UniProtKB/TrEMBL annotation:
This is Transposase. The lineage of its organism: Bacteria, Bacillati, Actinomycetota, Actinomycetes, Kitasatosporales. Residues 102-249 form the DDE Tnp4 domain. It holds the Pfam family DDE_Tnp_4. Residues 34-84 form the Transposase Helix-turn-helix domain. It comes from Streptomyces rhizosphaericus. Keywords: Metal-binding. One of its GO terms (molecular function) is metal ion binding. It comes from the Bacteria. Its cofactor is a divalent metal cation. Transmembrane segments: none annotated.
Length: 254
């Protein structure tokens, strides 16, 4: 197998953050020696998450076995996912802002037509539903655990307790029409089937769209992590990947 040098377009502070977490974790476990030191394991994990390269390709470049590569990434992802902010923490942060932004996004997965629970009629593809919470500047605050793509956004937000938690914290939330009827604190655009909006309603909807456009910055965050563009791992591992990416994003932002 040919080996070639490559780059990972993440800040060096992200590498230092993950390296420090892995180093602390190894001290807690009492690990004496491993094939890769914490810095190299962190670089390996970032290359996999950011570039989406298969384990076999990266393992050859780092001089380790494929099974070892899988264990290294799984360990780092589990560690990062545990550090991701909880919904309560995200709600406390949102309560200090003027408002919050809520949106649902679909993570495409490798599935066949028979897997109906994962098929999103809205996006016309198989995937996993993730609820994204952002602040008024479009900074990502929270990414929910995943649900099958067939689950509607408002149902997903309710099942995760997002709407109830934000309402309890007194946070006004801006969302799209997919969240109609969610709660009085959730602002959605005017919607009418088979009817035309008045001039005032159209103006409100335009203003609403401008505010909501900021959440697209948070949603676009996951697109920069190429592994999440087309997920091929078992669905029970997707939540961990999402939470790990969230933790890395917040670490690099800070």
């Amino acid at each position: 197998m040919l080996v070639y040098p490559s780059g990972v377009d993440v800040p060096s502070s992200t590498l230092r953050f993950l390296s420090a977490q892995l180093r602390r974790h190894r001290r807690e476990l009492g690990t004496r020696w491993r094939r890769l030191n914490p810095g190299r394991q962190a670089l390996f994990t970032l290359a996999h998450l950011r570039n989406g390269h298969p384990y076999a390709q990266l393992a050859a470049g780092f001089g380790i076995g494929t099974t070892t590569a899988y264990r290294y990434v799984a360990e780092a992802v589990e560690l990062l996912a545990a550090l991701a902010p909880t919904l309560a923490e995200a709600a406390r942060t949102a309560s200090t802002k003027a408002f919050a932004l809520l949106d649902g996004t679909l993570l495409p997965i490798d599935r066949i037509a028979a897997d109906r629970p994962f098929y999103s009629g809205k996006h016309k593809k198989h995937g996993m539903n993730v609820q994204v919470l952002a602040d008024p500047s479009g900074r990502l605050l929270r990414a929910s655990p995943v649900l099958p793509g067939a689950v509607h956004d408002v149902r997903a937000a309710r099942e995760h307790g997002i709407i109830a938690t934000l309402a309890e914290a007194g946070v006004t939330c801006w969302a799209d029409k997919g969240y109609r009827g969610a709660a009085i604190t959730v602002r959605v655009p005017y919607w009418a089937r088979g009817e035309t909006h008045s001039a005032g309603q159209k103006a409100v909807n335009r203003s609403h769209a401008k505010i909501r456009s900021l959440v697209e910055q948070a949603v676009a965050t996951r697109k920069s992590w190429r592994l999440l563009r087309k997920i091929r791992c078992p669905t029970n591992r997707v939540t961990g990947l999402v939470q790990a990416v969230l933790c890395l994003h917040l670490a690099s932002s800070d």
